[in-house]
Amino acid sequence: MPTHRLPLWRYESRRAGWAARAAPPAALLVTLVMALLTASGGAGHDQVGQLLLTGLEAILPLAVGMAAVTIVARDGCRELQLSLPARYAGTLGRRLGVLALVGAACAVAFTAGVWLSGWWAGPNILASPLVWAPPMLWLTGLTVLLGMLGRSVVLATSVVSALWLGEQLFAGSFVALDWTRPFFLFTTSRVGVGEGWLTNRLALVGSGLLFVAVVVLLLRRPHLLLTEEEE
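The line above is the sequence of ABC transporter permease; the predicted structure tokens follow.
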């Protein structure tokens, strides 16, 4: 990255807010604490490994998605910037990029630590990004999209949280149906790495990119980002 652009990224990192910097490590810290408590309670190696895997595939993506919608909602100068939608799209993209970078760095470090300690229960370590990246992209893209369409943080986070919880509670139903199986977020930790796993990961990436594409198109209609008070 050119050195003259570093101050801009530092500024956008601050503007992204504490949630963008704290949510990913906090999610994985909670996962680690839960795993330690489970291990101290006499749980087996496989059970602890699955819990650590769940943190990467389920808890981290949800935390990143929730943090992403706050980035969209917290900018108090949107009404001034939205007269130049392309410029604001770049600004928003950099701030979300900060969140994505923090989330990816935390995921890679966490994966390396789990693997080196012998608790890794996922696929080949070279394929480990497919555990967390597809659900993170999918949940983040959907949350930002809903936040823009509904112009409400509460609505976006409530819908996505309900969907996340529904997939956890009714995992068997999502896996059993042909049309929902490719979009099941927790295939690695709930089903395992087997037939259909790669198809599931690619389907999540494809639909997640579709969410992102719709968000970019909506940024061409900047009034969609304004709340009733700002209008």
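Note on the example: The two ends are 37 Å apart (CA to CA). Residues 166 and 174 are 9 Å apart (CA to CA).
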